[in-house]
């Protein structure tokens, strides 16, 4: 059975997430028209690039610049890895920078696990399809990996707020159950999404997508206490499915929605 998955969204052009799980498959010499940001999850991967042969055990990062020729194969019976592809032409809009990254200097740099963790979080949001959360995780990951390994200077926080964060909070309060795009929020206040996230986090302690989830959980409690069915609450508040609703509710309350309602009715 083919366990490989290539994930993309029509509203997020130039960005793909590849989850590879294979045995014995080899990739001939090729290149990508995108930056590749990956992590080995299981087994040992291998490739030839920049005149050298590389072996990548689990936990290793794999970074590659656009149009960089390389091969690819598994050094172990089974290889599982996750790889994000971002077209170079999309970086100005995504990063909101005048000066773009110079490119990855090292193919397999040392890292403390934050890049791999960011990839895992992004993969989850790709599966769930929450636009606000997905865009937020993508921007955070790109900023992290390019500052650490791609020659990008760390952004200085914007000092001016001008009522922007309060306006966004009110908007999220009014549209908490809707699918909200980060790009749309930026357009509302004429700010790049990256600056918007930073300003909102400084004002309220969490980024916009977390604030929206907290607001959904607050409303979920009210509806559950009114006796609404779990599935109806999940669907009505914009959750991907029942499992997503359960996970988010437990993350913020410590109990599942069913447990919360049962205890309230006891």
UniProtKB/TrEMBL annotation:
- Write down the superkingdom of origin: Bacteria
Recorded GO CC terms: cytoplasm
Principal localization reads cytoplasm
Note whether DNA-binding occurs among the keywords: yes
Q: Which cell locations does it reside in?
A: Cytoplasm
InterPro entries cross-referenced by the UniProt entry: AraC-bd, AraC_XylS_family_regulators, Homeodomain-like_sf, HTH-like, HTH_AraC, HTH_AraC-typ_CS, RmlC-like_jellyroll, Tscrpt_reg_AraC-type_HTH
This one is known as: AraC family transcriptional regulator
Species name for this entry?
Ectopseudomonas alcaliphila
């Amino acid at each position: 059975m083919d366990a490989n998955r290539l994930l993309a969204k029509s509203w997020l052009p130039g960005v793909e997430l590849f989850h590879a799980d294979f045995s014995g498959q080899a990739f001939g010499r090729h290149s990508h028209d995108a930056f590749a940001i990956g992590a080995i999850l299981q087994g040992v991967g291998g490739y030839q690039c920049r005149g050298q042969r590389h072996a990548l055990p689990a936990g290793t990062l794999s970074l590659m610049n656009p149009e960089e020729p390389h091969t690819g194969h598994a050094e172990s019976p089974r290889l599982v890895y996750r790889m994000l592809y971002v077209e170079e032409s999309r970086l100005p809009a995504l990063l909101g920078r005048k000066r773009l990254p110079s490119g990855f200097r090292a193919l397999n740099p040392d890292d403390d696990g934050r890049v791999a963790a960011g990839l895992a979080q992004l993969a989850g949001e790709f599966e769930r399809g929450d636009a606000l959360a997905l865009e937020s995780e993508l921007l955070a990951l790109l900023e992290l990996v390019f500052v650490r390994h791609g020659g990008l200077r760390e952004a200085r926080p914007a000092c001016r707020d001008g009522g922007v964060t309060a306006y966004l909070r009110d908007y999220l309060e009014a549209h908490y159950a809707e699918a909200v795009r980060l790009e749309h929020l930026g357009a509302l206040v004429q700010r790049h999404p990256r600056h918007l996230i930073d300003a909102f986090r400084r004002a309220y302690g969490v980024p916009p997508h977390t604030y929206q989830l907290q607001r959904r959980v607050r409303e979920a409690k009210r509806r559950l206490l009114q006796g609404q069915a779990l599935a109806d609450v999940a669907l009505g508040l914009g959750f991907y499915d029942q499992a997503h609703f359960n996970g988010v509710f437990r993350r913020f309350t410590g109990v599942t929605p069913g447990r919360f309602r049962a205890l309230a009715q006891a």
